[in-house]
Amino acid sequence: MTIILGEVGGPVTVELPELRALKADGLVLGRSPGSDPVDGGGCGWATVEYLSRPYLVRLAFEFARHYPEAGPVVLWPLGVAVELTAVACAVGGLLVGVRPVGLVAPVVCAVRPPMRRSRLARCHDVRADLDGCAVSLVVWELVVPARGVCLSGAMRAVAA
């Protein structure tokens, strides 16, 4: 699949991960938490499912902050198509590749994330070529609060 993403530049050919549909809300991680990104161990997509929707975003932020090597972290709300989530995984992987090492992992979602409106998010316009068919979609990136920032305090500051 070929993706055009403004932050990356020109067209990039990527492989979509093979995912199986979840039976509940979940997360998809780019690699196993605690793995060493340099040696290639822990590669492959790992899923965490049966998460409570009210805690889905918060847990994604915790993975992004404490296990940046596991990134990208992809929110996968129940009912979102496997193919859309696979595209979000690919976009998250591209974002990891263009950002400085050591930052928190990007947290992305194929649809509007199940979160409060006071949380910050960016929309990435994505154009993709799927077997000769042009597709346009939006992948959401949630802005992960900095380490040590109280989430409730950060939300009040954003909403003010």
Task: Explain this structure.
The chain is of the alpha+beta class and 160 residues long. Strand 1 (2-5) and strand 2 form a beta hairpin. The chain has an eight-stranded mixed beta sheet with strand order 2-1-7-8-6-5-3-4, sandwiched between helices. The chain has three helices and eight strands. The chain has one domain (2-159). It is globular and about 40 Å long.
Fold topology:
Layout: E1 2-5, E2 12-13, E3 26-31, E4 43-49, H1 53-66, E5 73-76, H2 82-98, E6 107-109, E7 121-130, E8 133-142, H3 151-159
Gyration radius (Cα, Å) is 15 Å
Helix content: 25-40%
In the predicted model, the low-confidence regions spanning at least 5 consecutive residues are: 149-160
Main β-sheet, spatial strand arrangement = 2-1-7-8-6-5-3-4
Q: Tell me the structural class.
A: alpha+beta
- Could you give the count of β-strands? 8
**Sheet of most strands:** 8 strands, mixed
Question: What's the average pLDDT?
Answer: 81
Total helical elements: 3
SSE string, helices as H and strands as E: EEEEHEHEEEH
The total domain count is 1
Residue fraction in strands = 25-35%
Globular, elongated, flat, extended or rod-shaped: what is the shape?
A: globular
Q: Give the termini distance in whole angstroms.
A: 42 Å
